[in-house]
Amino acid sequence: MKTVTNLYNTLRGDKYIWLILGFLGLFSVLAVYSSAGAMAYKYAGGNTEFYMMKQAFFILLGIGFAYGCYKLHYLHYSRLAPILLALAIPLLMYTLLFGPEYNDARRWINIPWINQRFQTSDFAKIALIIFVARSLAIKQDFIKDFKSAFLPIILPIVIVCGLIMPADLSTAALLFTTCLLMMFIGRVSLKYVALLVLCGAIVFGALFIIGTVFPEVFRVETWISRVQEYLSASDGDFQVQQSKIAIANGGLFGLGPGNSLQKNFLPYAYADFIYAIICEEYGVVGGLVIILAYLGLLFRCIKIVTQCPKAFGAILAMGLCLNLVIQAFANIAVSVQLVPVTGLTLPLVSMGGTSVLFTCMSIGVILSVSRYVEEAHKQKLALEKLEAKEDASNN
Question: Where are the domains of the chain?
Answer without folding.
Answer: 2-390
